[in-house]
Amino acid sequence: MSHQRIKKNVRSEAIADPHLKSAPQPICDHTDRNSERPGSSRRCTSDGRPETASTPSMATQYTAEQFVESAGAILFKLSTRQICLVHRLSTGEWLLPKGRRNVGESRAEAAIREAAEETGFQCRLLPLTMTTRAPPAKETANCRDKPRVHHGVCEPFKVTCRPLSGVANLKIIWWYIGAIDEEVSPGAGETQFEVRLFGFEEVEGQLTFSTDWDVVRKAIQIFDAIHAT
């Protein structure tokens, strides 16, 4: 007899014998927000307090002094179908414009500010049709966590998580898609960078890091869905 069937028989016998009934587990009306079932309840301790769920083994938490948030933008020049890259003169690396988010600044604001500072181009976020797990702006009741297509949104389309040196240090980079304002003459970017525009087919061979190309490739895919020639 298998172990599974043994357990099943023991349970049946326990139900049949009223003397073997265990005391019911206390139930409280604290809503379990992590449950997929609307209105489900969490089990409570004997004094009525909600039980604390165990932390998943893969979860990692960072305090504010252990992580840094950055934001960057893939800048498209719409009229010529080109992408802006920055060349760090001290290292020779070709990179995407990005930088750290300041206190009180939104991620989207940081992406545009850093792109403008490093490149000298005035720019804006480009409204997109994209798939994201972010709920709709007007969220309905019981909105399930799943990917949805949204139109005309300026959401981050990719995120990079990069461990830093030291114990439990992390850099998080939020990526947006932006457009260069072609009616405004470019200003002076940061002196540590040279700024150039490249055609879509040139960018992969120019970027120093393959992870940056992964970001650009996804950006081009989203861009071409609404700005295809």
Automatic annotation (TrEMBL):
Residues 10-20 have a biased composition (Basic and acidic residues). Keywords: Hydrolase. Residues 1-58 are annotated as: Disordered. One of its GO terms (biological process) is ATP biosynthetic process. The keyword Flavoprotein does not apply. InterPro entries: NUDIX_hydrolase-like_dom_sf, NUDIX_hydrolase_CS, NUDIX_hydrolase_dom, Nudix_hydrolase_domain. Residues 66-221 form the Nudix hydrolase domain. It holds the Pfam family NUDIX. GO terms for molecular function: bis(5'-nucleosyl)-tetraphosphatase (asymmetrical) activity. This is Nudix hydrolase domain-containing protein.
